[in-house]
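Q: We require from you a single protein entry containing the residue sequence and its fold in token form, and nothing else.
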Amino acid sequence: MMKTNELKKLLASATPPHLIDVRTAKEFHDVRIAGSQHMPIDQLDVAAVRQITRDHSEPCVILCQSGGRANRALDILQKVGATNVHVLEGGIGAWISAGGDVEKAANAGLPLMRQVQLTVGVLALSSSLLALTVDVRFALIPAFLGAGLTMAGATGWCGLAILLSRMPWNQTPTSSCSLPN
């Protein structure tokens, strides 16, 4: 794990690290650290990352929103022999909270995790009210939502976030996944 203050120092150095952002195209489009390369977790170019880590002494830092996807990418890369690869602790969210510089799109929409929170909140509130006023079986919906949030917290995998990321309002033109030499 690399802390935000460590990354700030490295980015200001003469030999900055390679930054690989494994978030969705929409997340990357909306906000990113300048100079980061977009390579969604499901399109992770293992050979290119391994080549960078073998040919360059600079570290490679994997970025995502909060650290879950970056840690999965790190596991994949370590299994194929990539070295000098790190994960930014707390992800882009921690970077922004620590005052790190980011590039933001002028037309950035609502962040994906806020969309998840709004969806779960509206469904839980409305189904709870329906359970109190219409039929007690509506209480199964907030129970299902709670189970989903528990699984997402325990595993870092959120099915609702994946579903929402595929919605039309969360789509942007695909970006290049190429890495610099």
Remarks:
- The chain has a mean pLDDT of 87.
- The chain has eight helices and six strands.
